[in-house]
Amino acid sequence: MVHFKLEAWSAMASGLGSEEDWSAWFSAPSIPDEPIGKEALKQIPAMLRRRFKQSGKCALGAALPILKEGEMIPSIFSSRHGDIEQTLALLEGIGRDEPMSPTGFSLAVHNAISGLFSIVRKDMSEVTTIAASKGLIFQSLFEAIGQLQVSKRVLCVIYDIPLPQPYSISTESDPFPFALAMILNGAAGDPYNLQPCEQSLTDQTSLTGDLNTEALRFIELLTGKTSSMTSSLSGGNWRLVQG
Amino acid sequence: MSKLHQELKEMIIEVLDLEDVDVEEIIDDEPLFVEGLGLDSIDALEIGLALQKRYGIKLKSDSEDTPKHFSSINALVALVESHSTN
């Protein structure tokens, strides 16, 4: 069993920002129909803001509220599919034999958002980026817990957008753009633990169908609507419990 | 403002996603990079690509003249005009 403490968290999706927003949303979960607006990043200078697409806007919108201006903190940025719309646009351009946009290329790499983030905050602390096909939230927690052995606090930002066509027919993805940011702290915060479990456990959740994802179940747990959840990673099943 | 000045400013706004910038805010003889408009090195590559696509101008990134051509809108206008008369 491994323990960790959660100092702060924040999650962002279209129309959803505060803990109260999410709490209300879990009473009647549905897919937000508006795209993420400009208002999300008003505090970022316009010349940098133009580089943030949907997933970047979510990631920053979630992370900035839990960070003090100027504080230095190591970070982990996790996303299963990354900025897949950028990648697809580049591939379509190659298919048409067009020269590749340097900006598009620089923003399509998996550590693009974390790079922009470090420029915005002028924070040169170490950054780790993760992509996991299964159990992204738990994989990120394991990485963060590992980093707590050498750092007092670690920022963990998890974000994804729905897969566009033609990828969406091949595998599942999150139902709408979202990001979740949290600070894990070695000493202080709400206690959680992770333990191996049997595969047969079913989570208590208000989420059904496409909305029943690991990330949304985790945010549901953070809002206190549930007290435990399970996730299946390659090679094992784990249960996250509050307390 | 000549038609070409207007055209190049619109091109820069479009290819660099400068959604908050108006054509009038880009001053003909002010620097485009760092101070002035505040563009960066990725923007320079993007402008280079746009010049190639729209005007058929190929710039060498290691040429000493390239930074001069990118110094202001006036310099870019001169570059496009000299290319079209050649």
Strand and helix layout:
The complex is a heterodimer of chains A (243) and B (86).
Chain A (H helix, E strand, L loop, with lengths): L1 E12 L5 H9 L18 H4 L4 H10 L11 E4 L5 H12 L6 H7 L3 H10 L5 E4 L5 H12 L5 E8 L17 E8 L4 E7 L17 H9 L5 E6 L2 E7 L1
Parallel strand pairs in A: 2-3, 2-4
Antiparallel strand pairs in A: 1-5, 1-6, 4-5, 6-8, 7-8
Chain B lengths: L2 H13 L25 H15 L10 H4 L3 H13 L1
Helix pairs in contact in B: 1-4
Overview of this protein structure:
- The complex is a heterodimer of chains A (243) and B (86).
- Chain A has 243 residues and is of the alpha+beta class.
- Chain A has helices spanning 19-27, 46-49, 54-63, 84-95, 102-108, 112-121, 136-147, 214-222; strands spanning 2-13, 75-78, 127-130, 153-160, 178-185, 190-196, 228-233, 236-242.
- Chain A has one domain (8-189): Peroxisomal Thiolase, Chain A, domain 1 (3-Layer(aba) Sandwich), CATH 3.40.47.
- In chain A, β7 (228-233) and β8 (236-242) form a beta hairpin.
- In chain A, α4 (84-95) crosses α5.
- The mean pLDDT of chain A is 93.
- Chain A is globular, with a radius of gyration of 18 Å.
- Helices cover 30% and strands 23% of the residues of chain A.
- Chain B is mainly alpha-helical and 86 residues long.
- Chain B has helices at 3-15, 41-55, 66-69, 73-85.
- The longest helix of chain B has 15 residues, at 41-55.
- The A-B interface holds A 46-47, 50-51, 99, 101-103, 106 and B 16-21, 38-39, 42-43, 45-46, 49, 52-53.
- Class of secondary structure makeup of chain A: alpha+beta
Q: Report helical residue fraction of chain A.
A: 25-40%
Biggest chain-to-chain interface with counts: A-B, 9 and 15 residues
Order of helices and strands of chain A: EHHHEHHHEHEEEHEE
Overall number of structural domains of chain A: 1
Question: Whole-number average pLDDT of chain B?
Answer: 90
**Strand-pairing-aware structural class of chain B:** mainly alpha
Oligomer: heterodimer
Q: Which residues of chain A sit in consecutive blocks of at least 5 with pLDDT less than 50?
A: none
Strand content of chain B: under 5%
Strand fraction of chain A equals: 15-25%
